[in-house]
Request: fold
Amino acid sequence: MDDCIFCKIIKGEIPCYKLYENDSVIAWLDIQPLSKGHLLVVPKAHYQDIHEASEETLCEVMKVARIMANKVKTELHPEAILINQNNGEKAGQTIMHYHMHIKPIYEDTHCNTEEGHRTGFPDEEMKKIEEILKVN
Ligand code: 5GP
Ligand code: ZN
Reply:
């Protein structure tokens, strides 16, 4: 995609701190990291989000996510690792090229944005949602 920053990085037109690459997936450091070692796992093909991406691509991304999470764990020794992937602006997606975040969480890393925002639904409502979302 011509006007996509991530496609430009993949083509080598914009530099990045590259950590890993295979035929279909690439990983690089996030330019505005939450913490030391925050990186992104990105398919080379342009898909906007999880709905567009092929199943094969999603599997390849997840494989590389684990390779990179293992590397982060071994080399940087964070307390925990947050892995997330935003779909749509309201969910925090700013780059419309599917990617997964690997975020090392250290003692002083602020990460739980949902804290204090979780709610509960009455049983009746939960049952309705269960019926709507049930797949099998
Ligand atoms: P999103 O908010 O779409 O889930 O994540 C996009 C991420 O890409 C952000 O964390 C942002 O810091 C990162 N980012 C945006 N532009 C660039 C760039 O040019 N280079 C790199 N390495 N990361 C970028
Ligand atoms: Zn792209």
